[in-house]
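Review the following:
>
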Amino acid sequence: MKDAFARLSLSKQFLTLSFPILLAATVVIGWWIGEQVKDSVVHRTGAVTALYVGSFIAPHVQSLANASDLTPSEQDALRADLTSTPLGQKIVALKIWRKDGYVLFSSDPDLRGRVFPIGQGLAQALAGNIFAEISERSQAEQLTHGQPMPRLIETYTPIHADQTGDIIAAAEFYVKPDDVDREAAVATRRGWLLVAGVMLSMYLLLFVVVRRGSRTIIEQQGQLGEKIRQLTEVNEQNSELQSRVIRAAERATAVNEDLLRRISADIHDGPVQDLGFALMQLKNTDDIFAGEDSLQQTPWRKNLRLSCTAVQSALTDLRSISANLDLPDIGQMGLDAIAERVLRDFQVKTDCRVLLATSIVPGTAAFRVKVTLYRLLQESLANAFRHAPGAHCQVRLAGDASTLTLEISDEGPGFDQTAVLGKGRFGLHGMRQRVEVLGGSFHLQSKPGAGTTILISLPLNPKSIENE
């Protein structure tokens, strides 16, 4: 139900939600206006009727200014006016009250001379005000108050002394509400029509505004949907291009490792072997010179020894290069063991000590991550030795179940990153490429005179696009 409503347009949602609210508001406002109109009509009618009633009652009760009760003749005159005048005939019941709640006169003879509590209406009249309301009372209340009908207009009006204007009594009378009901009904209908017309006009105007807004929103949603479709297509193309780039980088890394392995093998099997054979022949020749006393101090033997030294140095360098190019068997080694292996080899070749701090949670790392860790340490330490010889260097290796963090720092002279990276240093770019291929992050921090720090984060088991 909620999904069906959400699929509706804004204008239809407005119709669905606003119509019950508008209808309820119309009913409530119409009822309230009707009640206000009815009260207004009742009070106006009661006030007008009270003036007429007071005009024919007041002459017969002026003696109350000096007396405490009406004379029999005055009571007879009041009864005569109730039966002989048109206004009196409209009055259903009449009582004249003294200020203390004593009934001076009543159309019901049984109530004459009794004392009742002073109610709200009588109190208003004794205070000089006219009070009128629709009275709806039970049968017992009708008998108690002398009200023969269940629904009448109950009015209280003060009676003033002619000479002084003082309130000498109060009149309570009841008239039928027929005229008031008819007038109130007409006024209520007019009020209902006015409220309904205003509400309907507001509803239609709001609907026009909402309808226009709904159409604008629908058009914009269509345009937005088209843009989203285009962006989705572009994003898919970018994802495909990114996948191709990553695949190409992975293949390039694999090809590079294979190439390094082949170069190492070629160096070992070719120049290293040839230089080893040449060195052996040179040493044999030197041994021959050593056996001949006449040849021991000749320039030929001196040059021969210099040649042996040069060939030995070249052979050592080639073997070192070949060893660096070829990867050791690191498949079964842990990450901390790989770091220790690289640092040990570096110390043997350079006689430089590097501090190692490791805090790795035991886990399984992909072989590609191990290779990347090996090459990153190898390249960064070689750079530190080349550009900051003798400077203190430290490696921190940390990892949890999913991520490996590597930090290599030295206290060397540092460098201007903008100037150095702008030259296209292959080593730094190669390290960054190795990291980004695995989905990791590579950060380089260096300033002249402030040393250099490399921060690397690698996933332990990166997703391989090649196998998707």
Notes: The chain has a mean pLDDT of 77. The longest strand covers residues 151-160. The first helix runs from residue 2 to 6.
